[in-house]
# Entry
Amino acid sequence: MTELLYLDDAYMTSVTAAVEEIVPEGLVLDRTILYPGGGGQDCDTGMLEFDGNTYEIAGMKRISGKVVHLAAPNDIREGDNVTLALDWDRRYAMMKYHTSLHLLAYCAHADFGASITGNQISEEKARIDLGLDELDSEMTERLVRETNELIAKDLRVDTRAVARQEAERLVDPTKTRLDMLPSAIRSVRIVGIGNIDFDACGGTHVRSTREIGAIEATKTINKGKGRKRMEIRLR
Ligand SMILES: [Zn+2]
# Structure
């Protein structure tokens, strides 16, 4: 079982890990700093070093419950120790986008009672799908302005695992449906931004909102009744 080090520290850029298993697609390691993708956020890429040779990690994939580093080194065996290096610029951009979407979702819910029906985060842009019948330019401008105001407040972003009962107390049930989680899940990872927003999340975030800089809306798309998409870029 791969230990996911980015859950405790999203700022680690390099680590040594042992090869647990070699599968046709790549390597399973005892621990990793690379995000495997999920929750709308793209996977990380990086490099792997062994015995003086460097190999590209083209991406990450979950295969049958295993976290696989997509790489094709021909001289590595199970039990070897390798050094992982993260493509930090790509990941850091996604951390900024990801944290921005938390704030945007908070504002959309607080202002318009919007639920979040989807999101997508890449290195260059992000989008959020809002459960709204309408999203005009005035609403979009308001959401961007308020999100940027929160970013400028330099709010601290904390992630921690809490007991399910505690998570249910922290998270607004009209925003996030924790009751949809299987009952066997007793611990939930919560991301808290300042003391304004708490949500369940397994992704990677910046430590403080000011690191984001600012966002701008690039596009809004009508995806049908009760579904409005908003695309953003870091400014
Ligand atoms: Zn998150």
